[in-house]
Structure formats: C-alpha cells, structure tokens
Amino acid sequence: MAFQPVYIVDGARTPFLKARNAPGPFSASDLAVQSGRALLMRQVFAPTELDEVILGCASPSPDEVNIGRLVALRMGCGHKVPAWTAMRNCASGMQAIDSAIANIQAGRAQLVLAGGTDALSHAPLLYNKVMVMWFAGLMQARSLGQKLGMFAKLRPSALLAPVIGIMKGLTDPMVGLLMGQTAENLAWKFGISREQMDEFSVHSHQLVVEGRAAGHYDEIVPLVDAKGNVYAEDDGVRLDSSLPGLAKLKPFFDKKYGRVTPGNSSQITDGAAWLILASQAAVDQWGLQPIGRISDSQWAGLDPAQMGLGPVHATTPILQRHGWGLDDIDAWEINEAFAAQVLGCLAAWESDDYCREQLGLPEALGTLPHGRLNVDGGAIALGHPVGASGARIVLHLLHVLRANQARRGIASICIGGGLGGAMLVETLS
Q1: Cβ distance 239 to 377 under 8 Å?
Q2: How much is the pLDDT for 78?
Q3: What is the average pLDDT across 105-128?
Q4: Do 144 and 179 lie in a common domain?
Q5: 326 pairs with which residues across the strands?
Q6: Of the candidates 161, 182, 205, which is a domain's last residue?
Q7: Which segments of 42-191 does DSSP mark as H helices, in order?
Q8: 384, 309: one domain
Q9: Which listed residue (122, 203, 205, 384) is catalytic?
Q10: Which tens digits make up the pLDDT trace of 367-389?
Q11: pLDDT score of 2
C-alpha cells in the first residue's frame, strides 16, 4: 500500500538544558507538559479533541510510569483521550511520530499529538550488586544477632560505589560497548581522525550560534521553573568552541588509543519536542493550515557495534523507493550523537565496498552535499535528550525547508542496539 502523507500542523520544543552533574530543574514530564501546553494553547481545537497522545521517552523516572498518559492528563487532554509511551531508545520521539502516522493511516485517529522527552540529568544512581545483596540479607535477618551480624559485614566501599544509571543505559548489552565505543569503531573503520571530529564539532557550535542569531530556532518555547527562573535558549552551546580548546580534551571511551572525547560527542541533556499530526479529514474539519507533511519513513537494523551507521541503512531504502540520489534531497538532519558517527555515515555512502557489501548497491551512493547537512548545527552543540531528539530533528528539518523555500528533506537518527530511523519530510506547495 502506498504511503499516505500525514500533515504536520504545528510543533514546539523546549530549550535543551545541559546536565551539569546534578538533577536539572525539570523532570521529563515537566518538560513535556510545559512545551505541550504552549503548543496546544495556540491551536483552534481544545486538547480534549485530540484522538491520541504518544510520547517517546527512553529514561522515565520511576514515578512517571507511562509518562505519555501522565503528561496528557497534566496538559488537560481529559480522561477520554488515550495516551501512551513509546520507547525505541534514541529514536523514541521519532517512533512516537511514526506510530501516530500508522494510526492516522489506519483510520484509528485523525488528530494526534506526538513527540518525545527525557531528563537525563535525573538518571538515577543505583546500588551496586554487593550492596543489593547486603540489603537482601538484612531483610531476611530475623533476630537481633543476625541483624548485627549483617551490619558487621557492611563495608563502606560497597556503600560508596554506586552504579551510574546513565552509563548502564548507554551500554549495549549485546556487545558490551558504550555508545561512544561504537563511535570509536567507526572512526577506526573509516580512518576518521581526531582533528576531523573536532572540526566537525566546532562547526556544529558555530552553526547553532549563527542559526540562533538569524532567528532559526523559533520552535523553542521558554521554560519557567518553580522559582520563576526563565530558560529561553539551549544552554549547552559554546560561543568560544575552538580547535585548540577541543584538542585539550582527553579521549573518554578509549583512554589509550581513542579519538572520541566529550567535546566531539553529543551532550547529556534534558529536553522535549512535540508535533501535531493530522489527516486530511482533520485538516478539513478544523480548518487547519499545515506547515508540511511526512511522506515516507523507514526503520533498519545493523550490527550493534556499529550502530552509528543506522541513518545510512534507514535512509537508503527511502532514496531507492523514490529513485533519488543524496543530492536530490534539499536538506538533511542527521542526529549528531558523535562527530565520528555522522562522518562515518558520510564515508559509508562514499564507499564502494560498504555500499556493495552492506546495502546491496552496485557502487557507492555518492557524496551528501555538506552545505545541506544540519545547517543550523546539531546535537553536539544542542545536546541529545535521547527520547526527544528524533522529534526535534523532524520538526527543525521542516523549519529549515520552509526558511529556504525548499521542497524535501530527510531526518535520520542512529539508535542504540543497532538500529536506524529516517523520515521524509516535505513542504506544501
């Protein structure tokens, strides 16, 4: 069955707030609620008229179970609007959009609010296994003597050695590699140098600064915390990012031989992003003025140890279906999990061997025009709140297309576990 386009009516996101070694001012639900309320308040329909709310989230807090439903209720969508949570790791926000598209195309919904959120600064500290077993023994102790015996076994080293939850979450359980180590794999595979990564990263910060000055981030709605403090912009962007500055940073994931550093990796960040999606029937019913449409989407799997190449595997089938090359796309948003990962994707498309062996193509697909890629910067400067990033790049891509009076773009993201996702976004003539 042909892909029936689904309209994008509107969208909004929060500023992306960099984690600074302590829980940030907003929970994942706070972020989604504040940005979602601002978005819904400017619509002609009431929140209770939505057919569904779908929210991607990779790391909800224990007190935010089924965070999609919690957020929908807090936004005033009412008891009757079904809401749920999508989880596809780094692409949770994109999965929420894709699930909304599927339900609209199937006729189960006409008007859907879909997006993603994560507050990674709130990732938990966990007891290590030794401490967990000590607590289990204490709970099983019955007599005073048994309990005192357990306390005699307690060692400060066990108590003071917590497990960092986000490090667990960013480690692939199949291959035992941190996401940054998979980026090191790509740097080695394609011969990507430290200098190339750092140059890419500096450029990302510069593009965000330029895009911000040009007013290209008008999808952001400010946040206000409990003390009345206002957060209006992405706060991880460095005005002074430079090659000499990045050169001082040491490799983090492979301390002896590595090239991937905190400076050429995406930042750990809190943020949320939403899109309102509609069928033609909903557009007609409410007299909506769509700003674009999603015309195709694709998911792909690959070796988890090289998960950063997911955009290559997800995007190529879309290009093949439409008979296009890389230069037929007016604008690209590839999420910048790591500089090595984005550069690896470009190198894979330019490689005859990779395209033949992994994509089944007769030769290299070609070169993606660099002036069309992440023209306002990306996650290395903005941050990567895992559950939100897939929605952010779809929303911002549409803003880029409209600002440049362009027709079509592709948003794509790599996904921990060895997956990739991509969406074809088009403006309306």
Answers
A1: no
A2: 98
A3: 93
A4: no
A5: none
A6: 161
A7: 67-74, 92-105, 129-140, 144-153, 156-159, 165-169, 179-190
A8: yes
A9: 384
A10: 999 899 999 999 999 999 999 99
A11: 62
- Helix pair 310-322, 339-349: axis angle to 10 deg: 40
Cα separations (Å) of 243 from 205, 206, 255, 343, 393? 12, 12, 20, 17, 26
Q: Which of 57, 77, 355, 414 is catalytic?
A: 414
- Both 210 and 150 in one domain: the answer is no
Asked if residue 227 belongs to a domain, the reply is no
Residue among 90, 203, 313, 396 flagged as catalytic: 90
Q: Judge whether residue 192 has pLDDT over 70.
A: yes
At 227 the pLDDT is: 95
Residues 268 and 51: their CA atoms lie apart, in Å, by 33
Domain that residue 143 falls in: 128-161
Share of the chain above pLDDT 90, in %: 86
Domains in the chain, number: 2
- 21 compared with 70, residue with greater pLDDT: 70
- Residues 172 and 304 sit within 8 Å (Cβ to Cβ): yes
90 counts as catalytic: yes
Q: Are 379 and 368 in contact (CB under 8 A)?
A: no
- The yes-or-no verdict on residue 393 having pLDDT over 90 is yes
The 8-class DSSP code of residue 265 comes to B
pLDDT in tens, 221-278: 999 999 999 999 999 999 999 999 999 999 999 888 899 999 999 999 999 999 999 9
Residue 77 scores a pLDDT above 60: yes
- CA separation for the pair 169, 188 (Å, rounded): 24
Per DSSP, the three-state class of 143 is coil
Judge whether 111 and 276 are in contact, CB under 8 Å.
yes
Q: What are phi and psi of 107, to 5 degrees?
A: 80, 10
Report yes or no on 142 lying in a domain: yes
First to last CA, the chain: 24
Please count the residues of the chain.
429
DSSP secondary structure code for residue 88 in this structure:
B
Q: CA–CA distance from 177 to each of 166, 204, 282, 302 (Å)?
A: 13, 26, 45, 15
Phi, psi dihedral angles at 304 (to 5 degrees):
-55, -30
Computed on alpha carbons and rounded to an integer, the radius of gyration of the chain in Å comes to 22
314 within domain boundaries: yes
How far apart CA 91 and CA 111 sit, in angstroms, is 21
